[in-house]
């Protein structure tokens, strides 16, 4: 039997053709090269400022929260969905967790605006944040999978509801007293010289990549996004998978909520309205198809860094930072266009 | 008829409101034969196939698999009993590779702890998919590219290979060559013969009478929800099939199969 297989495989299957390599480059390789080129350009033009370890570590910290949200968004978009609610679910989860932490920690901390809450309080806050995020994610998932309402509408609705409830709970003002432990050890803390926030983001991305690319759940995410009907007929529980995918995205928004509270030492009700678009563009820049079925976590990591590196480089070069918005928008349109070209190229065979 | 039937339907009735889609229909197929199910539009072919593949339930009548009465409550139940359907729209995931489609919903897991944690065994799936394609004589341009880059005939072949991988008894094929060119049709028909030679009962639903005569071992004709004729392929002709489909004539119905 093996003898029968090998001739065919050697001649036809194993060596990727030039066309396949070209498609692979179109698929995600080019955006990585673009990122490297940007870094190289800024590093050559302003080596002292851009290449400094302080600047690089700030780049990574700026990317950390967005990356955690984008990992969840990657799962959702590969499953041919969309999650517009990530930013305000983050806000909701940060408010509920901050209120719980405030309630649990009595005295003020040594620094102004913090409380004395220790690791126990932080842990309780984390649990509340994760549950809050998971709750909104599950609501999204059930409405998409069971009620069969389009994800765009469902998550636009929960986008508003999560933000509204967060404002109702606090009368619209941020919770500014958060545990000192959280701010000092997580928000500003480092482990072996690496900011803790960055470590959390790296761990989330690594775990997300393993689950997406190596597990059965990950295969089913691709299958649901590629052809939902085929997945259903193959015996995959599409509803359960969709609910799990949206719940995962919500839960990661809960993780990001704790990171945000830790970093800014306050909740940030007004600061996350654009997170959904930022994550979607990061995911799409990273080669994940808006039509589902194609994508990777590695691509999303690259996609998260493109706008952040652009902004940083423009600031250092003295270019008005508003140009970053223009440049990111242009790269995003380019990315989707290349995705379309790639699809057409493949469908021609 | 020499071989005992593997899957047999007796007196199947199915009403949709006032419409009698099936009015006491009989059907049988034996292991290792290609049985074509033909009939005019509205004769009840698709209703019968849905009932026999678990996608619909009859109002009356019984279904026997290897001589035992079975209740096909759902496609999943039918699949567990070794019955599969290749749908006209193939139900493949276009972005996934052929081997991933072969194992869709039935992924091979890594042994031990990793498997328990949900890790799939890609190399085992690729190996077994390559064996399956080689066994059935399916030649793909590449086993790694997504389905969407394959030709229509190759996609059909992947869909049939998948059905043959998981169904060891009966495979229903709904117009498997409808959208294909001459060369690809020939390849798919060869593949169908390969599947039959494994001892699987193949039920072919087709409107293409010359093709039915070319590939089928036996032909059953439905008309107005009932079986009106059975032919051995050797004694059938397009004229006799069309006569049975349109008039259900006694002459055709009496013909021994």
CATH fold-level label of the largest domain in chain B: Rossmann fold
Rounded mean pLDDT score of chain B: 87
The gyration radius over C-alpha positions of chain A equals 22 Å
Number of helices of chain A: 15
How does the SSE layout of this entry go?
The complex is a heterodimer of chains A (349) and B (257).
Chain A: H1 2-13, H2 18-45, H3 47-50, H4 53-78, H5 86-104, E1 114-115, H6 119-145, H7 151-170, E2 178-179, H8 180-187, E3 190-191, E4 194-195, H9 196-214, H10 216-226, H11 228-233, H12 238-264, H13 275-285, H14 297-317, H15 322-348
Parallel strand pairs in A: 1-2
Antiparallel strand pairs in A: 3-4
Helix pairs in contact in A: 2-14, 2-15, 4-9, 4-10, 4-12, 4-13, 4-14, 5-6, 5-7, 5-12, 6-7, 6-12, 8-12, 9-10, 10-12, 13-14, 13-15, 14-15
Chain B: E1 5-16, E2 19-30, E3 34-39, H1 45-52, E4 60-65, E5 68-70, H2 75-80, E6 83-86, H3 98-102, H4 112-116, H5 122-135, H6 152-166, E7 170-174, H7 182-197, E8 201-205, H8 209-215, E9 218-223, E10 226-232, H9 238-247, H10 250-254
Parallel strand pairs in B: 3-8, 3-9, 6-7, 7-8
Antiparallel strand pairs in B: 1-2, 1-4, 4-5, 9-10
Protein architecture, described:
The complex is a heterodimer of chains A (349) and B (257). Chain A has 349 residues and is an all-alpha fold. Helix content of chain A is 76%, strand content 2%. Chain A has 15 helices and four strands. A two-stranded parallel sheet of chain A has the order 1-2. In chain A, strands 3-4 form a two-stranded antiparallel sheet. Chain A is globular. Mean pLDDT of chain A is 87; it is low at 1-15. By secondary structure, chain B is α/β, with parallel strands linked by helices. The radius of gyration of chain B is 19 Å and the shape is globular. Chain A binds chain B through residues 1, 4-5, 8-9, 12-13, 16-17, 20, 211, 214-217, 219, 222-223, 225-227, 229-231, 233-236, 289, 292-294, 343, 346-347, 349, and chain B through 75-76, 79, 87, 89-96, 100-101, 104-107, 109, 117-120, 130-131, 134-135, 139-146, 148-151.
